[in-house]
Amino acid sequence: MRRVAMSVAVLALALAGCAVGGDDGGSPDAGGKTQVTFRLWDDQVAKAYEQSFAEFEKQNTDIDVKIELIPWADYWTKLTADVGSGTVSDIFWTNTSNFGIYADNKSLLNIDEKLGDQKADWQKSVVDLYTRDNVLWGVPQLWDSIALFYNKDLVSAAGVDPATLKWSPEGGAADTFLPAAQKLTKGSQFAFNASYDGQSIYWDFVGSNGGVWQNGDAYAFNTPENVKSIQYIVDLINKHHVSPSAADTNENGDKVRDLFIQGKMALFQSGPYNLKNIQEGAQFEWGIAPMLEGPAGRVSVVHGVAAVGSAKTKHADETVKVLEWMGSAEGQKAIAEGGYAFPGVTAAQQGFVDYWSKEGVDVKPFIDAASGKTIPAPIGPRANAGATAVEPILKEVFLGRKPVADGLAEAEKAGNEAIKP
What are φ and ψ of residue 39, in 5° steps? Predict the structure, then answer.
């Protein structure tokens, strides 16, 4: 899930009207303007919001938008405390794993009621993610899907066409991926980033084998389809050795990305959140192909970040006005045209495509993935508690120290216990 910014330094915002600071409940500033506070965790995208809100304030001279940047490491702990105390920002970013508890607790503004007319303008897959009990609770801000980055030199030398690769747990002629991966593995060079990474790897394998990760809010790991999917990934690591050891990747999620950037990995299945990292770091020609195809086709995780409004805001009308701007093509123009992320407003999407086209990168595989078959990222009011319970068990599975079927059964039980109210 998107969490690009890890910096603990507060971003210095230079444009007039956009300031960074602590919570103050949205009080009017000294100039008599109504101040609406907005919280997020990504310092790169904050730069785009800085530009966006500067334009908003030109058009709405009675409102001042104050950006509050909270690093990812502290974001959710602080958010929980501030929502509970009633001191949370008027508007804040959330992801799918965390919004459900606030929706269920009636801590959020009902977006259907406030901005329902705009909903048709937003990326439907993200709208669906933030719809709970038939109510939309968030304004889509950005989204990502999954595709396959590839090193052009390495795949050409091996005679591999990355756009045609299919995996099958049954092996044989139906599985063209494993033979290709074995060709691409030489010495210290790996073929593929099989690792403990839900968004880029195992949720997609599960989906592309016809499986699901959840049934409603409950976990549904322990199925024949899922066992076969995870076994295939674990075998890539521990049996076929075409991917790095889980001992190196379980605790360092950036390890596989870095290997790809260093030219030591031929194929890297991931999302657009790594575009800038690869563009800035890779010293070789690279491209983007569709993600691996499984027995059920190509099934990508589509994740999105939404902006939600606090139900306790002291300035509801102004907060809704800012959310309306954040859900408009003009409001998301800077996010798209700066190449930061696919915007949640579909009309702004071309700006992101054009940015990367000028850089010589075709991002169409991500668009195709988002509009094709998808599997959702984890949802539910206690999804984080479930993930915490599941993680050590699944890491043992990826290390090859726990049989896949046993591990999935144990993880499902532990996860479902953890998400109970």
Answer: -115, 140
